[in-house]
Design brief:
mainly alpha; 5 helices
Length: 149
């Protein structure tokens, strides 16, 4: 009997269901980071762990076929440029790097009360999630011989 890559059918089935819930929770943490503990970094790590869960359950070959790694790398790179662009817009409109240039001050504990902070959380979440997963994927691809021979 041929052994397929990845783990057992039970693990794959649970992963197939739970990975979308994990991604949804990561998006929630990113979008509500200015109101609750969390934000872009924490939500990005959660989303990266959802992709890592897929890789552990199904194997590297499945991820190579299912996920376009170069597209993830492009998202990670463009999010750094977008973060810099938002910072420069802060200089252009307010005189300070990353200054709030959107319609100023809102009501406390409202979703749209934080100006540029939710936008920055989204950008940081994309940067962290894609960057962390691409690093983990690259480490799983490149093997280092023990002993150096």
């Amino acid at each position: 009997m041929k052994q397929s890559s990845g783990m057992t059918l039970i693990v794959k089935t649970v992963t197939r269901v739970s990975v979308w819930l994990i991604i949804l929770y990561g998006i929630y943490i990113i979008l509500h980071g200015h109101l609750t503990p969390g934000g872009g970094f924490a939500g990005g790590v959660i989303i990266a762990l959802a992709f890592l869960n897929l890789m552990l359950a199904y194997g590297r070959d499945f991820i190579k076929k299912w996920v376009n790694i170069s597209f993830l790398h492009d998202i990670e790179s463009s999010s750094a440029a977008l973060f810099l662009a938002i910072g420069i817009l802060g200089i252009a409109f307010s005189g300070y790097f990353l200054a709030n240039f959107l319609s100023g001050y809102g009501t406390l504990y409202r979703l749209y009360s934080a100006g540029t902070i939710p936008i920055l959380n989204i950008v940081i979440g994309a940067k962290v999630s894609m960057g962390l997963f691409v690093v983990v994927w690259a480490l799983s691809i490149f093997h280092i011989d023990k002993g150096g021979k």
